[in-house]
Amino acid sequence: HHEKHTEHGAVVRDAIIGFADGLTVPFALTAGLSSIGSSKLVIIGGLAELFAGSISMGLGAYLAALTEKKHYEVEEERERREVEEMPEAEEEEIYEIFQPYGVKRETVRGVVEELKEDKESWVRFMMQFELNLVKPKVSRLYISALVMGLSYLLGGLIPMIPYFAIPNVTKALFVSIGITVVMLLSFGYVKAIVTGTTRKAAVWSAFQTLAVGVLAAAASYGIVRGIDKA
Amino acid sequence: HHEKHTEHGAVVRDAIIGFADGLTVPFALTAGLSSIGSSKLVIIGGLAELFAGSISMGLGAYLAALTEKKHYEVEEERERREVEEMPEAEEEEIYEIFQPYGVKRETVRGVVEELKEDKESWVRFMMQFELNLVKPKVSRLYISALVMGLSYLLGGLIPMIPYFAIPNVTKALFVSIGITVVMLLSFGYVKAIVTGTTRKAAVWSAFQTLAVGVLAAAASYGIVRGIDKA
């Protein structure tokens, strides 16, 4: 017997998230800009947003993960200090951890005594069960940020290819819409599957992902048309 | 004695994140587009990206949180089934939870016996300590998504105001840069402070946030100039 958990590669998950995000905003922007009628403008605006967005996403993810790591280290240091300087208070916190589950003090006392024997274990126990913090792995920070930034770039680039290949902007727009609808549905589905949902939930996710893309594109198109006329 | 944890309002945190993201990509895009020389184009492209981005961000956050909630419910249902049908295996898992912290089996046995008395408590214990999953609150999903989408909108709108107010595109660009540099530094700082870091780390975060904005804007500007000339 073993639990089936959602332990798919975190890398795959980052790629899916970056890709799905890249499919939405750059597509919406190019769809809106296309209504002005210039392929060159669509490509300029689209690529500018795409590279700015992937830099922001990749670097942003890296910095956020770095902050989490620092936060973990700060809290770990604090727990070490408290285990040294205020052990009775820390012991009391162990009782408080078990109290909501109906486990009596006398029963927990044995656990408390054994945890106290090894201060490093005690600290790790408090990090996990009191603060609910997991130790972030450094190498994964770089990989995660790189994967997310690059997959955002790829996700946004594919719907733009028609504008490079097809001179007529309106035709390019329709091909772009076709490609993007298929990709939004596919990736909405895959995104849900890799987080361990049922097939039914994944189909629902596919249409939700499509809906977000459609709404974003409609807003973008509406704004461009509205301002262009005014 | 009480632990100083990073329990600032989740709403404040969402607002900070949305705002900081909104400051980066829309600003980068408008800075790049400004090099073409038309205020109207900057406003059109900027607003299109802004609304598409805030819709994508807000709705995306909502859908992701909904998926997490569903995931929690699926796992909770599985644990309930396993507690009913395979209690010995679940008991074994409790021993495995404590084993890395050096707590002996005989000591844990008392905890196991008391957890078994109330199946709901037992399930909740496994959710928390085996799967490390926290029950998401529904109301916060809506608020979180709304706050993130709206603060992205606000974050992106403020650097664009000069383009509405100042007819000369280049002048507007410089004012926009000035406003955005100040805001990126401020919000990089505040973003770190609300997650509980030291002042020194917050200053570092301020400059990192600025750096991401500068890099994104430089990429955008470079691309627009490069393609416009080609």
From TrEMBL, chains A, B:
Similarity remark: Belongs to the CCC1 family.
Transmembrane segments: 41-65, 141-166, 172-190, 202-224
Gene Ontology biological-process entries: intracellular manganese ion homeostasis
UniProt GO molecular function: manganese ion transmembrane transporter activity
PANTHER family per the UniProt record, alphabetical: FE(2+)/MN(2+) TRANSPORTER PCL1
Topology in membrane: Multi-pass membrane protein
Main location: membrane
Keyword terms of this UniProt record: Membrane, Transmembrane, Transmembrane helix
Subcellular location: Endomembrane system
Protein name as catalogued: Ccc1 family
GO cellular component: endomembrane system
One Pfam short name: VIT1
